[in-house]
Amino acid sequence: MILLAGFVGLRWGELIALTPNDLNFKNNTILVNKSLSEANGQFEIVTTKTGNERTLPIPEFLLSELRELTLATP
């Protein structure tokens, strides 16, 4: 998670809101279209801070680890 945040430039809420469906291993990209937000003690999934979705490249050195993690996800 820290490597994704640092090398891809994801905000914490965007990182936490990622699901395996957001990862595209065919194109080696991540779709960022939501974020986890907290208000009044309640957490909810909302649009990103800018309200725009974006597609970001996955660094080559993270691909195998992300594939393993998504395969381990039920």
Question: How is this structure best described in words?
Answer:
The protein has 74 residues and is α+β, with helices and mostly antiparallel strands. Helices cover 31% and strands 27% of the residues. The protein has a 3-stranded antiparallel β-sheet with strand order 1-2-5, with no helix packed on it. The model has no long low-confidence stretch (mean pLDDT 90).
Observed structural traits:
two-stranded antiparallel sheet, globular, 27% strand, 5 strands, 74 residues, alpha+beta
The main pleated sheet reads as: 3 strands, antiparallel
Overall mean pLDDT stands at: 90
H/E topology pattern: HHEEEEEH
Any idea what the shape is?
globular
Distance from first to last alpha carbon? 19 Å
Helix fraction bin: 25-40%
What is the strand arrangement across the widest sheet? 1-2-5
Share of β-strand residues: 25-35%
Residue windows where pLDDT falls under 50 for at least 5 positions: none
Radius of gyration: 13 Å
Number of strands: 5
Helical run tally: 3
Structural class: alpha+beta
In short:
The chain has helices at residues 2-8, 12-17, 63-72, and strands at 23-24, 29-32, 35-39, 42-46, 54-57. With 74 residues, it is α+β, with helices and mostly antiparallel strands.
Helices and strands, with pairings:
Blueprint lengths: L1 H7 L3 H6 L5 E2 L4 E4 L2 E5 L2 E5 L7 E4 L5 H10 L2
